[in-house]
């Protein structure tokens, strides 16, 4: 069972999550796209600060719940430079894994995002929009499976390389993904599950 959130409200369920973690696989991933608080406030003015979200990571980890961070969305040219510091802070707070997702701007979202960007960070707006298109084949969106979360091109590969190198150094590569020596690929490891196939010979039980 997994939860992805950017809200500290998940702390209200720490007791429930801790109970679940004792009988099955349960983990929480906290989305933290920025480490620099000024940039965070410029783009996400009405949500919990990076420091507050890291306190959530720390509280979950202290309760024995597997917790990680999702550095997402990565906005090329803006917060990709935050990756190393953010991952180090997450590790120190007790995170056990990390992942990233590159920004894409489907449909009218692109116009809304650019308007917000130019209003909040006018000196960086042109650079950021140029980098976004650079990682999306000249567009602001690419919905192709396998590409939409990572982007493509030299700059996207540099972002991915920075994340993977830092996450590996800090021991934050996801625990369910292990590298396969020799072919450079990765595989999903077998996990223990509490799932039980229902007995269809009679009335199923609720409890």
Descriptors:
207 residues; alpha/beta; 4-stranded parallel β-sheet; two-stranded antiparallel sheet; 7 helices; globular
Order of strands in the sheet with most strands: 1-2-3-4
Distance between the termini: 19 Å
- Main pleated sheet: 4 strands, parallel
Q: Could you spell the SSE succession in H and E letters?
A: EHEHHEHEHHHEE
**Cα-atom radius of gyration:** 19 Å
Overall mean confidence score, pLDDT: 88
Percentage beta strand: 5-15%
Low-confidence stretches: 178-191
Tally the beta strands. 6
Q: Percent helix among the residues?
A: 25-40%
Please work out how many helical segments DSSP would assign.
Answer: 7
Shape: globular
How would you describe this protein?
There is one protein chain. With 207 residues, the chain is α/β, with parallel strands linked by helices. It is 39% helix and 14% strand. It has helices at 14-23, 37-43, 50-62, 83-93, 109-120, 125-134, 154-170; strands at 2-5, 27-31, 66-74, 97-102, 177-179, 186-188. The strands form two sheets. Strands 1-2-3-4 form a four-stranded parallel β-sheet, with helices on one face. The radius of gyration is 19 Å and the shape is globular. Residues 178-191 have low confidence and may be disordered.
Short recap of the structure:
The protein contains 7 helices and 6 strands, in the order βαβααβαβαααββ. It is of the alpha/beta class.
């Amino acid at each position: 069972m997994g939860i992805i959130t950017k809200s500290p409200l998940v702390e209200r369920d720490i007791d429930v999550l801790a109970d679940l973690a004792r009988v099955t696989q349960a983990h929480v991933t906290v989305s933290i796209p920025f480490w620099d608080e000024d940039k965070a406030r410029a783009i996400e003015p009405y949500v919990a600060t990076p420091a507050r979200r890291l306190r959530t990571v720390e509280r979950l980890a202290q309760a024995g719940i597997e917790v990680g961070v999702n550095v997402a969305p990565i906005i090329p040219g803006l917060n990709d430079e935050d990756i190393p510091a953010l991952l180090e802070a997450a590790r120190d707070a007790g995170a056990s894994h990390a992942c990233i997702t590159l920004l894409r701007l489907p449909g009218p979202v692109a116009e809304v995002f650019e308007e917000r960007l130019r209003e909040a960070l006018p000196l960086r707006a042109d650079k950021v929009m140029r980098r976004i298109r650079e990682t999306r084949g000249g567009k602001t969106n690419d919905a192709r499976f396998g590409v939409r979360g990572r982007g493509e091109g030299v700059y996207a590969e540099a972002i991915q390389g920075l994340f993977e190198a830092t996450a590996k150094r800090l021991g934050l590569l996801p625990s369910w993904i292990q590298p396969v020596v020799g072919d450079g690929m990765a595989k999903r490891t077998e996990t223990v599950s509490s799932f039980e196939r229902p007995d269809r010979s009679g009335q199923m039980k609720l409890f």
